[in-house]
From TrEMBL, chain A:
The keyword Translocase applies. Keywords: ATP-binding, Cell membrane, Membrane, Nucleotide-binding, Repeat, Sugar transport, Translocase, Transport. The keyword Cytoplasm does not apply. It comes from Tardiphaga robiniae. This is Sugar ABC transporter ATP-binding protein.
From TrEMBL, chain B:
The chain crosses the membrane at residues 22-44, 56-73, 102-121, 127-147, 167-189, 220-241, 253-286, 298-315. This is ABC transporter permease. It is a multi-pass membrane protein. The lineage of its organism: Bacteria, Pseudomonadati, Pseudomonadota, Alphaproteobacteria, Hyphomicrobiales. It comes from Tardiphaga robiniae. It comes from the Bacteria. The keyword Membrane applies. Its main location: membrane. GO terms for molecular function: transmembrane transporter activity.
TrEMBL record, chain D:
This is ABC transporter permease. Keywords: Cell inner membrane, Cell membrane, Membrane, Transmembrane, Transmembrane helix, Transport. Its main location: membrane. One of its GO terms (molecular function) is transmembrane transporter activity. InterPro entries: ABC_transp_permease. It is found in: Cell membrane. It is a multi-pass membrane protein. The chain crosses the membrane at residues 20-40, 46-64, 76-108, 114-141, 153-179, 212-231, 288-309. The lineage of its organism: Bacteria, Pseudomonadati, Pseudomonadota, Alphaproteobacteria, Hyphomicrobiales. GO terms for cellular component: plasma membrane.
Length: 512, 324, 302, 316
């Protein structure tokens, strides 16, 4: 137990000075949900404090309380040992707290510079006007400082997810914050940008900035974290040192039980008949000449860099984008229609952006779970509330969706639970081919394991899956085969024994 | 956080939000009735109540189809103009053929065709419904003005006029029609898969499409139904007024929209009920009836209606628990 | 003399049959005199800004003369002055403009129209009973005078009681609903004075619907009113005689262009159309003919 | 390596907005078909006629960008126009009339903004309600009558010129420039983009969306007050129905101009072009003296066509 003793010593050194910021006894209740229950939390300058927890554990809520977006029902804030009030985002900003949100807070029709300095625009000569020269120069400066080389006059609407995340980071950095909160900042980033971010974090630490970092990626937790706080069901479970615990320990703390994270798979010995065959597919969104095959009982990966066109491929297969050339054969039949045809044939698409494309946020969990299955469950067209709720209960239980009721609006669930609802609706529809676009983005380890187990069960029962993931480790663990994309084309295919992160990166790189 | 093995929480959740909303609105309608009963001695009579119901039914027919459109997150500004053109064409058919049946079919057909055109503009041409139907409004007016040449058409067969002014077992015939369509509308919206899909489309059209709902086809259906309901309303107008004129439905569009909104249907789509719209139409009619009975100066009527609309929707906000 | 003049005719809307009668009257007269007509009608009924714009556009186009019904008799004065500035002769028809220079005015006297039609109703009912008035658009010239005439006719008869005076905005549906509501608060209504025919017919439909009887009068002498009189449903309609107004306005405009003598004011005498005298009105508009100038001259008041 | 944003439309033809295509097309057709169209007095005519609509359409653009709508504009315009007339008549002072009208306009705008931002009523409903109120008040203050007998100065506002340019055009152009500066060069304008595009972002930037929204609607009210002056000057009187329905024309012009009804994507110059396009269409049809029913349908067709062209563009 020397290791533990050492870390204890380290903790006491840190605690000699008062924490830069401290939250004491924070509670926050939403109708039907106790999101935070007497949580205390502190950060010191120059440390990265990891915040861990299952989906819906209350991490984002705690950070929203911290930055003044939510008002806590009870509890107090202390800055440098002194009690302070935070009742609005403006209060938090004055204390030097900046947040990189899980959901982007960017304005689509303003340019990058305007977004970075929103609310803090340099004043021009005429009162009320903006000094355009200065705002552009400042923006360039901030972007350079995080190693993101882009023209600050580009409007946000033109940017991809990763680029938006980088702007979000630039925006937080530009505030010269003393306390920086990052809520799953790497969920949308590719490896290159992730490296940039980590380098940046190291620099900020050296400058004495306190960083609160939320992530579901274990590797990050250990490589970045100086301390770890684990939340479960809105309560603070423990605060530990990364050196003192294993990832299994952390998972047990988060979930309250142990979870097998090796995602064991019952690999099909002989893949079944061909379920999906794509020949020479091109679409208006820029992909061209895509050939791929998915057989029954297989999980096929689709990887590549961000922007390589993976999403576009699956959208074209599903019929969400119009194909301009090529053929899609499903179960030997030619498929040419839109998503409704795809759904009828037994395809399912779990899209990249659950809020925009996956869910009707104002509708209930039950309504969302049932929506794709309406035709199957009520073939005669008459809808029955009782039957539909029964289906919804079963799914809620099966997927362990955390919700006070099937009547809760799905928009009020935590991110991970929302993702489960999106998957659930296709289970109800009885799909045969599941297309996952980043199925585990923003999902906690427990849920991730559950989802992979689920996918495994589905394919074992005769379905098939095509899966996009930016986490190459996941692809390597889970897939039978994988296609690697580059610049809107398939760059190559990797068999099970060839699957390694190295090979994926090699194939996915741009070649001149 | 709640135990996931028991997804149903408190009993309050069992009463759907929609039902609570409608209950509040019925309460409001009831309060207006109570006030009018006290303030006038003529309000509380069978005759007047039937009278209010019959007037409300005219508004309801237009507003019920519109409700579906609004549920999908759209709007149909052309309904008033649609009523006019349907009435004029149906009127001609009745005059020419002497057959009310043919006339009724024509009216509903023309209305439905106009609605379908709206649907095509919204789905195939991807024009926002507000603009598409506003354009349609003027196109229809133009055609109707040209067709009628500034004249009116009047004098329809007595049998046909029964649809608008007749009684059956002591109740006006439009009231029966109202009940029938209220039932059909409610069943369609709440008890069919199409209805569920319409709510889903209104709440998030992109997600609905990616969930396998044939969004374009459902929208086409909804706009066509809304148009056909305007066509049906035009028949009732025709029978009730015993005449067709080019501006017959012009003054009805905004009240119909108001009835839908007072009835608790959200303009952003995905929330609301047909029954709510009925209560909305009832409230608006009661207010006008009351002002007539109280001989309120005409100048005050728009003002009072405006206040009522805002109050009703405010009440809705206060009582709605569900949020995004 | 040089013919082929182009005369612009301004009317208030495309929906009210009255203005159609004026347009047909002016067309018939123009055709007889070998002139051309151009019709300008606001796309939104009775829109003031639109009629002003139309005047401005027409002034660019420079027609030979203008026959003009202002959508609002006061608001349109600046428009008339623009026409005057452009030196285009203009004849004022129906609603007397509050300003501007006109070759002539042709109209009917709304007050005596209301008064005479009202008297006709009261005479039929023996000067007593319960009455309601259904008013037109508040503030419009025709409505103010007609309603004043109605009221004066009622005041002449001590036995007549006015129960209510409510607006139907010249609209059939509104009148119908107002009537339905009024019947609820008044068990006995003997006579209805409506400021136009559409509202009168609307009131009749309401009465029919409730199986009640009352004598109804309207104003305008439109085709549907004539039919209703023939059928015994409507007691009478005050003849506003749009056709004649259109004829006379057009004739005066063309004559003034041809430097022929004109009459500067014609206010048509009120005629009440009832069961005994509807026959001459019971012919299609297009087959009616305009009076000869000699006949027209006799109608002149100035 | 410098990162690029996606470049969607490579074909420059596809980037020309629908409204510009329409406007050029209409102008060409009308110049060919009627000799009177392409003359200085007529062009000035069209522009002067468009001024009142532009003054409504400018703030309407901002309001639509905030995902809002103001249906009360036409009715409030009627009311402010009456107020100008009544005050000018009573005091003989044009300035007092204008001030009173702007005050009433701002009051209505503020109430709209308050209902939308603070009470949380959807803009369509809130302004539908205030539409009724303004319409009722117009009837009440005027007792349904026109208000006439304006002092001479009133008339001059519409018919006067400044350096040879008609005063309404000067006013409208000034308004456009002010709005342009406001939207593209000030914090206020930046925040308007955020109000529609991402309201949360504003909140996190510590800016009160409520205050801003109220301000946007109040600004609309102020413009309606100013437009009321032009309206009264144009009619040389006040009238209780004069401006009814103009809000829809304004909304149509904004839509024709390419401002989208979602997510705060607005284009002010497009609004200007939209207003002029509507004006040119009406004027040209009047000059051609086409049957009125065609004129009625034409604006509807224009709106549909412009949006259709825009839709074609955005799809590729
Ligand atoms: N505005 C709200 N209204 C009602 N409930 C809410 C609201 N915001 C969050 N919740 C609930 O509070 C709980 C905590 O949510 P929170 O977003 O903090 O979870 P999280 O730990 O960030 O999860 P994830 O990893 O999925 O992002 C969840 O059950 C969620 O449904
Ligand atoms: N950073 C970028 N630079 C240039 N073009 C980009 C960029 N990001 C996206 N794109 C464009 O968008 C298309 C694909 O976008 P998208 O990011 O959805 O692809 P993806 O492979 O599905 O990536 P991911 O699923 O990780 O988001 C590309 O073909 C490219 O044209
Ligand atoms: Mg979260
Ligand atoms: Mg993608």
């Amino acid at each position: 137990m020397t290791q533990l003793a050492q870390s204890k010593a380290a903790v006491s050194i840190v605690q000699a000075a008062p924490p830069l910021f401290e939250l004491r006894g924070i509670s926050k209740e939403f109708p039907g949900v106790k999101a935070l229950d007497d949580v205390s939390f502190s950060v010191w300058p120059g440390e990265v404090h990891m915040l861990l927890g299952e989906n819906g554990a209350g991490k984002s809520s705690l950070m929203k309380v911290l930055c003044g977006a939510y008002r806590a029902d009870s509890g107090s804030f202390h800055y440098n040992g002194e009690k302070v009030e935070i009742t609005s985002p403006a209060d938090a900003q004055k204390l030097g707290i900046a947040v990189i949100f899980q959901e982007f807070s960017l304005v689509p029709y303003l340019d990058i510079a305007q977004n970075i300095f929103l609310g803090r625009e340099p004043a021009g000569r005429v009162p009320g006007t903006i000094d355009r020269k200065k705002i552009l120069a400042d923006a360039r400066h901030v972007l350079d400082s995080i190693g993101f080389d882009i023209d600050p006059t580009i409007r946000i609407e033109k940017l991809g997810v990763a680029q938006q995340q980088m702007v979000e980071i630039a925006k937080a950095i530009s505030q010269n914050a003393r306390i920086l909160v990052m809520d799953e900042p790497t969920a949308a980033l590719s490896d290159r940008e992730t490296e940039l971010l980590f380098a940046l974090i190291a620099r900020l630490k050296a400058d004495g900035v306190a960083i609160i970092y939320i992530s579901h990626r274990m590797a990050e937790v250990f490589s970045l974290g100086d301390r770890i706080t684990v939340l479960r069901d809105g309560r603070r479970i423990d605060e530990v040192q990364p050196g003192a615990v294993s990832s299994d320990d952390l998972v047990r703390m988060m979930v309250g039980r142990s979870v097998d994270m090796s995602y064991p798979r019952t690999f099909a010995q002989t893949p079944g008949k061909v379920m999906l065959e794509v020949k020479g597919l091109s679409s208006s969104s820029g992909i061209a000449g895509i050939d791929l095959v998915v057989r029954q009982g297989e999980i096929v990966g689709l990887c590549g860099l961000v922007g390589s066109g993976r999403t576009e491929v699956v959208r074209a297969i599903f019929g969400a984008d119009k194909a301009t050339a090529g053929q899609i054969l499903f179960d030997g039949q030619e498929k040419s229609g839109g998503p409704d045809e795809a759904a009828r044939l037994g395809l399912a698409l779990i899209p990249e952006s659950r809020k925009a494309e996956g869910l009707a946020l104002i509708r209930s969990v039950g309504d969302n779970l049932i929506v794709s299955a309406l035709r199957k469950i009520f073939p005669r067209g008459f809808f029955d509330q009782g039957k539909s709720r029964q289906v919804a209960y079963d799914l809620i239980r099966q997927l362990r969706i955390v919700t006070p009721s099937d009547k809760q609006a799905v928009g009020l669930l935590s991110g991970g639970n929302q993702q489960k609802v999106v998957i659930g609706k296709w289970l109800a529809a009885g799909a045969k081919l599941f297309i996952f676009d980043e199925p585990t983005r923003g999902i906690d380890v427990g849920a991730k394991a559950e989802i992979f187990a689920l996918i495994d069960r589905l394919v074992a029962d005769g379905a098939a899956a095509l899966m996009i993931s930016s986490e190459q480790a996941e692809i390597c663990h889970v897939c039978d085969r994988a296609y690697v994309m580059c610049d809107g084309r398939i760059a190559g295919e990797l068999a099970r024994h060839e699957l390694s992160e190295e090979n994926i990166v090699k194939l996915g790189m741009h070649h001149a | 956080m709640t135990d996931i093995s028991k997804p149903i929480a408190s009993g309050r959740m069992l009463l759907s939000d929609e039902m609570i909303q409608v209950f509040y609105r019925l309460l409001a309608a009831f309060l207006i009735c109570a006030a009018l009963t006290i303030l006038t001695n003529s309000f509380f009579s069978l005759g007047n109540i039937l009278n209010v119901l019959r007037q409300a039914s005219l508004l309801f027919f237009i507003a019920s189809g519109l409700t579906l459109v609004v549920l999908t997150g759209g709007l149909d500004l052309s309904i008033g103009a649609n009523v006019a053109i349907s009435a004029c064409v149906a009127g001609t058919v009745i005059h020419q053929t002497g057959s009310p049946t043919l006339g009724v079919l024509t009216g509903i057909g023309v209305g439905g065709a106009v609605g379908m055109l709206n649907g095509v503009m919204v789905t195939a041409l991807r024009i926002p419904s507000f603009i598409a139907t506003y354009g349609m409004l003027w196109v229809l007016h133009g055609i109707t003005y040209w067709y009628m040449g500034g004249e009116t058409m009047h004098g329809f067969p007595a049998g046909f006029r029964q649809i608008g002014s007749g009684y059956f077992l002591g109740l006006p015939i439009p009231v029966y029609l109202l009940l029938v369509f209220l039932a059909i509308g409610t069943i369609f919206a709440q008890r069919t898969t199409w209805g569920q899909e319409i709510y889903a489309i209104g709440a998030n059209p992109v997600a609905a499409r990616l969930s396998g709902i044939p969004v374009a086809r459902r929208l086409l259906l909804v706009y066509t139904v809304s148009g056909a309901m305007a066509g049906l309303a035009s028949i009732i107008f025709l029978a009730r007024l015993n005449s067709a004129e080019a501006d017959i439905g012009e003054s009805l569009t905004l009240p119909a929209i108001a009835a839908v909104l007072i009835g608790g249907t959200s303009l952003f789509g995905g929330l609301g009920t047909v029954f709510g719209t009925f209560v909305g139409a009832l409230i608006l009619t009661l207010v006008l009836n009351g002002m007539n009975l109280l001989s309120v100066n005409a100048s005050w009527q728009p003002l009072v209606t405006g206040v009522i609309v805002i109050l009703a929707v405010w009440l809705d906000m206060k009582t709605r628990r569900r949020a995004a | 003399f040089a013919d082929g003049e182009t005369i612009a005719v301004f009317t208030k809307n495309q929906t009210n049959p009255y203005f159609q009668t004026v347009r047909v009257g002016s067309d018939v007269a123009a055709k007889a005199m070998k002139a051309k007509t151009l019709h300008y009608i606001p796309t939104k009924p009775d829109s003031i800004p639109e009629q002003l714009s139309q005047i401005e556009d027409v002034v660019v186009k420079k027609p030979s003369a203008i026959v003009f019904i202002p959508v609002d008799y006061k608001a349109m004065v600046p428009g008339v002055e623009k026409i005057n500035d452009a030196k285009i002769p203009v004849v004022n028809v129906t609603d007397r403009s509050a300003g501007g220079k006109f070759v002539a005015f042709v109209g009917a006297d709304d007050y005596s129209l209301g008064l005479e039609t009202g008297r006709y109703l009261l005479k039929t009912l023996g000067g007593k009973g319960n009455f309601v008035i259904i008013e037109g658009v508040k503030g419009s010239l025709t409505n103010i005078d007609r309603v004043r005439g109605f009221n004066d006719a009622l005041k002449e008869n001590p036995g007549a009681k006015l129960l209510a005076s409510q607006p139907g905005n010249y609209q059939r549906l509104q009148a119908l609903q107002v009537m339905e509501n009024l019947m609820q608060s008044n068990t006995q209504i003997d006579g209805v004075l409506a400021a136009n025919d559409a509202m009168a017919i609307g009131a009749i439909e309401a009465l029919d619907g409730a199986n009640r009887k009352a004598q109804v009068i309207g104003v305008n002498g439109t085709k549907e009113a004539i039919d209703a009189i023939k059928a015994g449903k409507l007691l009478a309609s005050g003849d506003y005689n749009g056709f004649m107004q259109g004829c006379l306005g057009m004739m005066i405009a063309i004559r003034s262009l041809r430097n022929e003598p004109v009459i500067t004011e014609i206010v048509l005498k009120p005629t009440v159309i009832g069961k005994e005298n509807y026959q001459p009105y019971d012919v299609p508009l297009e087959s009616r003919t305009c009076p000869s100038w000699d006949e027209a001259a006799k109608l002149g008041t100035k | 390596m410098r990162e690029q944003a996606m470049v969607l439309n490579t074909n420059p033809l596809q980037r020309i907005p629908g409204v510009a295509v329409m406007l050029v097309l209409l102008c060409v057709v009308f110049s060919l078909m009627t000799p009177g169209f392409l003359t200085v007095p007529n062009i000035s005519n069209v522009l002067v006629q468009s001024t009142i609509l532009l003054m409504l359409a400018l703030p309407m653009t901002l309001i639509i960008m905030t995902e809002g709508l103001d249906l009360s504009m036409g009715a409030v315009l009627t009311l402010t126009s009456l107020i100008v007339a009544i005050v000018a008549l009573a005091t003989g002072s044009l300035l007092l009339g204008l001030l009173a009208a702007m005050a009433v306009g701002i009051l209505f705008g503020t109430v709209n903004g308050w209902l939308v931002a603070v009470v949380g009523i959807p803009p369509f409903v809130a302004t539908l309600g205030t539409l009724g109120m303004a319409q009722g008040l117009s009837l009440i203050v005027s007792d349904g009558q026109s208000v006439v007998g304006m002092p001479a100065a009133v008339r001059g506002v519409y018919s006067g010129t400044l350096g040879g340019v008609p005063l309404p055009i000067v006013l409208a152009l000034g308004s456009y420039l002010v709005f342009h500066g406001l939207l593209y060069h000030t914090r206020f304008g930046t925040y308007i983009f955020a109000l529609g595009g991402n309201r949360e972002a504003l909140k996190f930037a510590g800016i009160s969306a409520r205050r801003l929204l109220i301000l946007v609607y109040a600004l609309g009210g102020a413009m309606v007050g100013l437009a009321g002056l032009l309206m009264t000057a144009r009619m040389n009187s006040g009238h209780p129905t004069a401006g009814l329905g103009l809000e829809f024309d304004a909304i149509a012009a904004v839509a024709v101009g390419g401002t989208s009804f979602e997510r705060g994507n607005g284009w002010l110059l497009g609004t200007l072009l939209g207003v002029v396009t509507v004006g040119v269409l009406r004027n040209g049809l009047n000059l051609l003296a086409l049957p009125s029913s065609i004129q009625v349908a034409s604006v509807g067709l224009l709106v549909i066509a412009a949006l259709f062209v825009d839709g074609l563009r955005s799809r590729s």
